[in-house]
Write a structure and sequence with these properties.
- Strands 1-2-6-5-4-3 form a 6-stranded antiparallel beta sheet, sandwiched between helices.
- The chain is globular.
- The longest helix has 19 residues.
- By secondary structure, it is an alpha+beta fold.
- It has one domain.
């Protein structure tokens, strides 16, 4: 009986420690979404269609492959921008694209799952703000190429 109790206690402690040390965008979102100076949005990705022109069929097709989006908007980003690397380690998230223009920077990271992309993380930084966006779904690298072309065309 003692062994069973010790085993259950060990499993509980190990699970708790693993959850606390979890390194991914979801844990980053959960950590900062309740801060008073931060805007946090979590919604089904279909809501993005409200903001996309009807003639942008490629972008709408990419969105259909997603299921959820989580967005954080920070007004004074300096310490947060440095801290996000802790939550998005390079062994889990691969850098797909970086765009730098004067004081602004856009970085797109991806997380693969069985040769598909299960998460697209978009980080947008400028002088006054920092925006993070986590898009969850079942995407391909072709989808990412089309997404980056759309972002480049919008310039």
């Amino acid at each position: 009986m003692k062994n069973l109790i010790y085993s259950l206690a060990f499993i509980f402690i190990a699970t708790t420690l693993t959850a606390q040390n979890e390194k991914n965008y979801k844990s980053f979102y959960k950590t900062f979404k309740e801060e008073k100076s931060i805007i946090g949005i979590s919604a089904p990705i279909g809501i993005a269609n409200w903001f996309i022109d009807s003639d942008e069929k490629e972008l709408r097709n990419i969105i259909k492959r997603g299921n959820k989006v989580s967005i954080l908007v920070f007004e004074n980003e300096t310490p947060i921008f440095d801290e996000i690397d802790h939550y998005l380690p390079s062994k889990i998230y691969e850098k797909f694209l970086t765009i730098k223009d004067k004081d602004s920077r856009i970085k797109i990271l991806v997380k693969e799952n069985k040769e598909k992309i299960s998460e697209i993380i978009i980080l947008i930084k400028d002088n006054n703000s920092f925006i993070t966006m986590g898009i969850y779904g079942d995407f391909t690298y072709d989808d990412l190429s089309k997404l980056s072309e759309t972002m480049h065309d919008k310039g």
